[in-house]
Design a protein that fits this description.
This protein has 139 residues and is of the alpha/beta class. It is built from five helices and six strands; from the N terminus they run E-H-E-H-E-H-E-H-E-H-E.
């Protein structure tokens, strides 16, 4: 049975690891009406400019343009689109920089479907409240 909570929304998934991206896109497709995917920050920026997705899920460490640089580009013109960062590196330096870029949620890999959806729900609520929720595992 399909979950329609986000069926009216679009999401951009930016992840450089093909296997991880495929799993994320498949999972997101079960929840979101439209799922865009990009393999790096450059491609993510182009898709963002063309489609203006409702929410963005983005890895930090990627070739060409990393996730933080992508967020900086987006935040130059858009402070309202919820952004969820997904990374294997849970460091305070990243967290502080992301807070200043108005990130709505931060997930540490590996992430299961439940944590992913909880993070996206939190980010979408954060769009209204302006608060960031940090998942466990962040040091």
């Amino acid at each position: 049975m399909r979950d329609d909570r986000f069926a009216h929304l679009s999401i951009l998934c930016v992840e450089d690891e093909p296997g991880v991206r495929k799993r994320l896109v498949n999972t997101l497709g079960f929840y979101f009406g439209t799922v865009y995917e990009a393999e790096d920050g450059n491609e993510g920026w182009k898709i963002y400019e063309d489609y203006k997705p409702d929410v963005i899920l983005c890895d930090i460490h990627m070739p060409k343009t990393n996730g933080i640089e992508l967020v900086k580009l987006i935040r130059k013109e858009d402070f309202s689109t919820p952004i969820v960062m997904l990374t294997a590196y849970a460091t305070e330096i990243y967290l502080l920089e992301l807070v200043n870029l108005h990130i709505h949620h931060y997930l540490v890999k590996p992430v299961n479907r439940e944590r992913l959806i909880e993070g996206l729900e939190s980010a979408l609520r954060g769009q209204i409240s302006g608060k960031m929720r940090v998942c466990s595992g962040v040091v």
